[in-house]
Amino acid sequence: MAGDMEADEGSTAEAAYRSALGAIRARSGYARGFISDQSAGDDAARLGLRRTAAVLDRLGRPQERYGIVHVAGSKGKGSTCALLASVLQAAGHRVGLHTSPHLHRFTERIAVDGRPVEEATFATLTGRAVAAAEAVESAEPHLGRVTAFELSVAMALDHFAAVGCDLAVIEVGLGGALDATNVVDPLAAVITALDLEHTAVLGPTLEAIAAQKAGIIKPGRPVVVAPQPAGALTVVLEAAERAGSPALVCGRDWWVSGSWRAFAAEGPWGTHADLRLGLVGPHQVENAGAAIAASWLVDAVGFPVPAPAVRAGLAATRWPGRFEVVPTRAVARCVDGAGTEPGAGPGLDSDPSGGHVPVAPADAAAGPPAAPAGTREGGVGAPAAGGYAILRPDDRYPTVILDGAHTPTSAAALAATVAAEVPGRRAVLVLGVLADRDPAALARALA
């Protein structure tokens, strides 16, 4: 009897979760899109910002109840968010993390202390957000219909307040200035590396894209700037100056040197030496530097982040689909990788079992210990939906590397990491690309 009751409860919870996904799906558009249709023009996108703010007003302005770091960029923003959230969690803070897209389950987009939101809670959040959205649509029909992405942003911000987060790290969906996440008033902003992407929406030049990304800089609030092409850097710094926002710029105010296995970060915080990363690849060192700089800014406004937390948080970080290595015999499904539209993912909820399959970690020589992909335990840096592991070679099966590189420069960084980490092994490329990408350019960079 007890077993039957538990089964009934489980089926009821699953039905509620699926119903919540259906409510979100009903509001999606923009190709298979999940983001607001910024290509409809600036005025339409600004209506999206007003809708999101109005929904949050109906929910009691939850985003004002904790500190926020807002992260935009073309490359490395997801990794930087994961690194920063792990560091802040290691410092003892309760940390929310909102990212997109998800890899397997929608709940991955809304995580607290490394744990995705529970399905039952997700269903409740959806109900609250939909009710608020319907109230806004009824009272202010001129604003238009609240979109799926706007709804998901409101859900995340609502959840972080409900569970008592001290801090939240919020990743931009697309662009920055007109993205639905840009309703927050953050403690600090971060601009990761910029590149040509989504040019039909963001503009045809790096400078135009930089202007959109720099739109998350708020008056008087500091901004961390990762290494940038000269023209893009000029645009970002001009935006910061107009806003009266102090800028911490890589190569001017902070520096990193070394590899993901051992590197140093120097800046206004002093020097952190012999740091190790839980993410593979030389490009992750720059992302880590941006996360360290952001954590220093958070510390400066009253959320302590001691040096040991920086060290522990960086080493514990896990982030799926970033040089994630699995053996062929363990691959039960595929990650939608290169060219994924922000906010789209491989469907609203593509994997009913959730998470990745386990993989075996390498010995210590391969780098810091890696949690098995799909680990759900709590603790510092527990992955939202998996993690990487460098595996011992197994002659019976090829090794599969999953990565989400979606620009030529990101693809080149992936190729360099493969050459460095698994040298001398024959590689076969399987590439999935959406219509707004250049598959030939990506393939050339990976060759």
Automatic annotation (TrEMBL):
Domain named Mur ligase C-terminal: residues: 398-440
Disordered: annotated span: 337-379
Assigned protein family: Belongs to the folylpolyglutamate synthase family.
Residues annotated as transmembrane: none
The protein's enzyme class: ligase
UniProt-listed InterPro entries: Folylpolyglutamate_synth, Folylpolyglutamate_synth_CS, Mur-like_cat_sf, Mur_ligase_C, Mur_ligase_C_dom_sf, Mur_ligase_cen
Native organism: uncultured Thermomicrobiales bacterium
Record's keyword terms, sorted: ATP-binding, Folate biosynthesis, Ligase, Magnesium, Metal-binding, Nucleotide-binding
Reactions listed under catalytic activity: (6S)-5,6,7,8-tetrahydrofolyl-(gamma-L-Glu)(n) + L-glutamate + ATP = (6S)-5,6,7,8-tetrahydrofolyl-(gamma-L-Glu)(n+1) + ADP + phosphate + H(+); 10-formyltetrahydrofolyl-(gamma-L-Glu)(n) + L-glutamate + ATP = 10-formyltetrahydrofolyl-(gamma-L-Glu)(n+1) + ADP + phosphate + H(+); 7,8-dihydropteroate + L-glutamate + ATP = 7,8-dihydrofolate + ADP + phosphate + H(+); (6R)-5,10-methylenetetrahydrofolyl-(gamma-L-Glu)(n) + L-glutamate + ATP = (6R)-5,10-methylenetetrahydrofolyl-(gamma-L-Glu)(n+1) + ADP + phosphate + H(+)
Keyword Repeat: no
Pathway(s) per entry: Cofactor biosynthesis; tetrahydrofolylpolyglutamate biosynthesis; Cofactor biosynthesis; tetrahydrofolate biosynthesis; 7,8-dihydrofolate from 2-amino-4-hydroxy-6-hydroxymethyl-7,8-dihydropteridine diphosphate and 4-aminobenzoate: step 2/2
Reported function: Functions in two distinct reactions of the de novo folate biosynthetic pathway. Catalyzes the addition of a glutamate residue to dihydropteroate (7,8-dihydropteroate or H2Pte) to form dihydrofolate (7,8-dihydrofolate monoglutamate or H2Pte-Glu). Also catalyzes successive additions of L-glutamate to tetrahydrofolate or 10-formyltetrahydrofolate or 5,10-methylenetetrahydrofolate, leading to folylpolyglutamate derivatives.
Alphabetized Pfam families for the sequence: Mur_ligase_C, Mur_ligase_M
PANTHER family given in the database record: DIHYDROFOLATE SYNTHETASE-RELATED, FOLYLPOLYGLUTAMATE SYNTHASE-RELATED
Recorded superkingdom: Bacteria
Biological process, per Gene Ontology: folic acid biosynthetic process
NCBIfam families reported in the protein's UniProt record: folC
Protein name: Dihydrofolate synthase/folylpolyglutamate synthase
Needed cofactors: Mg(2+)
GO CC entries: cytoplasm
Positions of the Mur ligase central domain: 71-294
